[in-house]
Design brief:
The chain is mainly alpha-helical. It has nine helices and four strands, in the order ααααββαααβαβα. The chain has a two-stranded antiparallel ribbon with strand order 1-2.
Length: 184
């Protein structure tokens, strides 16, 4: 057995676990407006951000620390303040940016919440009807494709993919119809 390959896979799994926590906390930050509140605000303490967003300071502080650990935000140790750079704002707090992560942040956690349903369809076949996946997944999927369809390389011919309709379609299931629909 190649011990280096074993260690590489084990470290990769730990990194993926950390990334899943970061995405879940990113989802919270996006949903509660924490990223938007930091955009253009300059350096902020956790107390200032909690006041600005009307959220519990303790949880805002822990969230900020996790976002710094994930390298989504910066921290100034001398002042004890957290900073969102313009580059970070472009990805985390600007839904119109072609690099916006708003859709993916809103897509990941709710998708994971459907794990038990996915286990069921792996065993029994079929899919999950749009009415069962919850409203966040279709909304986030549309938001995920929006920046790509607005970039200059897509302006001439791309259109948003109709993978997730605004209402549920009879007989449509997720993820099979989402994978089969594509954007052509």
């Amino acid at each position: 057995m190649d011990q280096q390959k074993v260690e590489a896979l084990a470290f990769r799994m730990v990194a993926d676990m950390a990334a899943s926590f970061s995405m879940a906390l990113g989802h919270i930050g996006d949903r509660l407006g924490l990223f938007r509140a930091m955009k253009g605000a300059g350096p902020l303490t956790s107390e200032q951000l909690a006041l600005k967003t009307r959220l519990n300071e303790r949880y805002v502080r822990e969230w900020l620390k996790a976002m710094v650990a994930a390298e989504y935000l910066d921290y100034e140790p001398t002042s004890g303040q957290y900073v969102m750079t313009p580059e970070q704002a472009s990805v985390l707090a600007d839904d119109a940016s072609p690099m916006s992560a708003g859709g993916p942040l809103q897509f990941t956690a709710p998708t994971v919440a459907n794990t038990e349903k996915l286990v069921r369809i792996f065993r029994d076949g079929g899919g999950i009807s749009y009415s069962e996946i919850g409203p966040e997944v279709p909304r986030a999927s549309r938001a995920s494709s929006a920046p790509a369809t607005s970039t200059s390389s897509c302006r001439s011919g791309c259109r948003p993919c109709p993978v997730f309709p605004s209402g549920s379609r009879r007989g449509s299931t997720w993820p099979t119809s989402a994978a089969a629909t594509g954007c052509r």
